[in-house]
Amino acid sequence: MTTPQRFYPALLALYPAGIRAEYGDELCATFAERTREQIGTFAPVLVALAAIADVVPNALAAHWDILRQDLGYAAAPWAALPASPSPRSSSSRSA
Q1: What backbone torsions phi and psi does residue 40 show, to the nearest 5 degrees?
Q2: Theoretical Cys-Cys bridge with 43: which of 27, 38, 56, 87, CB 3.0 to 4.6 Å?
Q3: CA distance 46 to 28
Q4: What domain count does the chain have?
Q5: Helix axes 43-80, 17-37, angle to 10 degrees
Q6: DSSP assignment, residue 85?
Q7: Which domain holds residue 63?
């Protein structure tokens, strides 16, 4: 296994497991094709930098979406609770 073939799956580890399971093989195949198409001395470095520039922000966005969804599910039961009276309003009633 060549260095680019080891590099990209390791980079894909930044994605959530569900995304890796669903799209990992296809992403690796696309990366391998892109790597084969590049010619030149600095081609491997440029391909690696492009992969990093693609994967890192997209992986962060995927994690953020999952976190936002999880927080929404966690907050939903709390939003359904009736509002409790504030301490101030209960003391003003007794006065």
Answers
A1: 130, 165
A2: 38
A3: 17
A4: 1
A5: 160
A6: P
A7: 3-78
